[in-house]
């Protein structure tokens, strides 16, 4: 043994002896890796499972749209009261923030969205939506039930928390960007990392999927009014035809992604709305078109936005029409891309691997859909993943936002236990690393 090696050994021995023996802050790696499975068994107990299912069905029967989730929010607060969990209310109109743990930093958040969709439910079952034209067709009812399930697990195991867990019950994810309003109302104060789950009815039960980096696109909307001069359809020389101009605008818009974007940088531009004219023999005064555009980075997104405006105005002018273009409105705001933190991805792989075995974690292909969780990720490291809730009895499982959407409730314990395990592990690792650790706080690549 060399001299320096001997010194090292003495130092290691010193470290070993100076450690308090078997305090809770020193769970062995084996004990730590058992937590996710223990939490899952707990969440699967009949009483806990039935309670989560009950909460989910109650919310499913009474779907409420963005910023109108008054009953849902009330139900959440009643459940938190029952568990003895303190909370802050209201934020962002109906939002609730619950707190579990020491009340001291670090603060780490888990989030559920509460709103439903403007859609008539077509699934015939005992707990079908009782509100005509509204439906939980995106699983937010399950998101709330799983977050309450996680709250129960964490409250029972609060001795394991090396800091504070903040429960985010957020309104208005569907298009209104409730997350943005939560942030404006101070929800992220002190919070250093955040996790979110989305149910996936196409992914088998007990599987999860996600990836490091961008997973969902940023999304924006545009609307343009193209004005010409109406007149008799048989005397075109006396009119300025906005239908023809709008048609050329649409064709030109289709060349932005195909000719101006990097083929390896996925983008979408769709014109989904075309309103103009009403008669067979009248050229209308104006046409309104509108659509959505998607991209995975701010740069691509802003480039696309600028070119949409230039092309609409320029192309309309070719046919002597004027055009005005608008982008954001109160109920249609821009969502940034959803970008997962790479260190949190490692944490997720460890926790999900411990709970579900490695084969349960699938590498997700990025999707062009969007999610307002991205607003949190613009401020702090965040991690979003999909949880399998496929209904194996269905011949052809319906996608989210389908009136036939239906989840497999057996997936609820997985979501509750994953939420809870992620934050326990996050706080534990943070605590162990002390203030010198920058891993989970590395934010540069966002
Ligand atoms: C377009 O705008 C100009 C300037 O305001 C106006 O003179 C012209 O008449 C407009 N053309 C149409 C087709 O509306
Ligand atoms: C993207 O743009 C938004 C709004 O301008 C900004 O807040 C955010 O920090 C930007 N994100 C990145 C990764 O540059």
TrEMBL record:
The keyword Signal applies. It comes from the Eukaryota. Coiled coil: none annotated. Belongs to the peptidase M20 family. This is Peptidase M20 dimerisation domain-containing protein. GO terms for biological process: auxin metabolic process. Residues 218-312 form the Peptidase M20 dimerisation domain. Keywords: Hydrolase, Manganese, Metal-binding, Signal. Mn(2+) binds at residues 138, 140, 174, 198, 401. Pfam families: M20_dimer (PF07687), Peptidase_M20 (PF01546). It comes from Erythranthe guttata (Yellow monkey flower). InterPro entries: Amidohydrolase, Bact_exopeptidase_dim_dom, ILR1-like_Hyd, Peptidase_M20, Peptidase_M20_dimer. GO terms for molecular function: IAA-Ala conjugate hydrolase activity; metal ion binding. Gene3D superfamilies: 3.30.70.360, Zn peptidases. The keyword Signal applies. Its cofactor is Mn(2+). Residues 1-23 form the signal peptide. The Mn(2+) ion enhances activity.
